[in-house]
Specification:
By secondary structure, the chain is of the alpha+beta class. The chain is built from 6 helices and 8 strands, in the order βββββαααβββααα. Helices cover 34% and strands 23% of the residues.
Length: 247
């Protein structure tokens, strides 16, 4: 068993025994991993406050033990890798972050390293923390669309007035009305095309959307994931998010 220095993003924490937790973390070095962390739920001085570091979406800087043959690893040392100013306290940003975390839980299956994906995720959570209200409200749409690029089924952005149907099954814009019910059209296709062209999250504040449009698009993107990822199901955070995004 060897020691490694890695950053990680917390996806899930489950209480274990009296004082411990089992934490699922997406790490820069090893992809998705589970760690047993002892003594962080005690009320003693040593343990006090440490459980806070394992909130979903937290970015950690860690020294970890890693053994390829084990499903449950251990953490030797951990501290904040980035200290959020807003995500844990702002209702909208917290709801968006929890949506992002659930989307990752449902799509990250294999414990394989993907540094490009890790850096995209780290960057996305930090941008969300710093985002203005309009950009934060549009953030889940941006994230859901751009995350697909790492899984190999992203939309090809060839929208035009001629190609105005977005086929969620094929992942492409088309001029023909699809023969199945999994498509969006009109302004929803156009906005999706705009979102696909956003390179930097701060540009999201330039796309004025209302609650109804966001609600419809989030539903469509959930369908898109369900059509491409086995056993994807329904997202629990989606109804909450759809209610909260009123900006």
């Amino acid at each position: 068993m060897t020691l490694h220095h890695t950053k990680g993003i917390v996806l899930r924490t489950v209480k274990y025994g009296e004082t411990s937790v089992i934490v699922t973390i997406y790490t820069e070095l090893f992809g998705i991993q589970s760690y047993l962390v002892n003594g962080v739920r005690t009320s003693s001085k040593k343990g006090s406050g440490k459980a806070n570091l394992f909130q979903p979406a937290a970015i950690l800087d860690m020294i970890v033990y890693h053994n390829e043959l084990k499903n449950l690893q251990r953490i030797k040392e951990f501290k904040w890798g980035y200290l959020y100013q807003h995500i844990f306290f702002n209702v909208v940003k917290n709801a968006v972050a929890l949506f992002m975390v659930e989307l990752l839980q449902k799509t990250l299956k294999q414990p394989e390293s993907n540094p490009d994906l890790f850096h995209f995720l780290e960057d996305a959570f930090i941008h969300l923390d710093e985002a203005e209200d309009q950009a934060a409200a549009n953030f889940p749409l941006f994230f859901a669309l751009h995350l697909t690029a790492f899984y190999g089924f992203r939309f090809s952005d060839d929208y035009s007035e001629h190609n105005h149907y977005l086929d969620l099954k094929e992942g492409e814009f088309t001029h023909e009305h699809p023969v199945h019910p999994y498509f969006i059209e009109g302004q929803y296709s156009f906005i999706t095309s705009q979102l696909l062209r956003v390179m930097q999250p701060h540009e999201l504040k330039q796309i004025p959307l209302n609650q109804e449009i966001r609600r419809a698009l989030l539903q469509a993107y959930q369908t898109f994931y369900a059509l491409h990822i086995q056993d994807f199901g329904q997202m629990k955070t989606l109804p909450v998010l759809q209610e909260i995004l009123t900006v």
